């Protein structure tokens, strides 16, 4: 296969280039890369592993600009070859919807053909009585008319995978709403505003650069529960079986396509429907305190880019910017996430906190997001607060303001929020691992 030849040729080229830079790189890096690139007979070079190794190296070690450019070029070429593999591969996989969707490595199991199969599996699931009962839609014709929302994060090949989904939806004459790059939570709000039948979201959340993923949400914006994901798995894996004929759709979708301004819709949603955020009051406070304020937002090159600006509005953004009160970093297009795992962890938060300290401002806030912005970490100049601590504090604040409601918690979550709920006489649900298990608890009220 031509792609295997390219993979082997690239592996040899990369190893030669790393050796040529030996005066600028550590022996350990070159030795580790050699183990990934020089494989025994019958084994393919581990290109993505090499890309992560290189990215991790230049983030933890000082390298000169010329060497850095050479290392980044290596990652780009790895991505290009893996993209060709994703376009050309006919290899099947086993689809498993994990904590919240199906995730896979681009060019290995997450390929263009397999995306077609999974999206068709989602469509077949939407024809079932189980889905129709879940969403309150009377038949598949109503699914067609209600439409499906497509959204994605900034991942490599994201638009290409979305195009595959458009072709599959068009083959069934389903109306398509396309939000483009859009945070996962924003997509849930937009989905309910559109009154669409569901959403297909291309994101693997906070996973490293080599991953892509698909999440499906039914009409109410929450994650599909196990009853629906099991059907998707069954339908998609039926197309994966050896000997099963499958032709990807190439149906024209232009007449069914509706572009969505998700940022504006989200701003309207928050202003008109949120019981939590008083946006006029918040904007006024930010404006009044702009000279004592410093907010630093790490967009991690992801789908959150531009959404905070849209929420605050151009007038407030202009005031904050001129006062040096707000700054956004990692807003450029970078499919390798400047070489780090794109998660709002403590290590990625450290330079943000240091920048807050250096600002000398009275009020400080660091906000770090993952590529689809469903994981957020906050800090000020004195305290770093991870997500498992922030959620209980936010929950307690809502209860103190008179907004009541129970808590659904999955295994990795903090028990702190559960204890607050119990103390305040609120309902508590403890579920198995995965957002897909939240659905029944949330729907129960």
TrEMBL record:
Enzyme class (EC, first level): isomerase
A biological process from GO: carbohydrate metabolic process
Domain Alpha-D-phosphohexomutase alpha/beta/alpha: start-end pairs: 96-239, 290-381
Cellular compartments per GO CC: cytosol
Signal peptide interval: none
Keywords in alphabetical order: Isomerase, Magnesium, Metal-binding
GO molecular function, one term: metal ion binding
EC numbers: 5.4.2.2
Keyword S-adenosyl-L-methionine set for record: no
Membrane-spanning segments: none
Coiled coil: none
Catalytic activity reported: alpha-D-glucose 1-phosphate = alpha-D-glucose 6-phosphate
Gene3D superfamilies, per the entry: Alpha-D-Glucose-1,6-Bisphosphate, subunit A, domain 3 (3.40.120.10)
Family named by the database record: Belongs to the phosphohexose mutase family.
Name of the molecule in the record: phosphoglucomutase (alpha-D-glucose-1,6-bisphosphate-dependent)
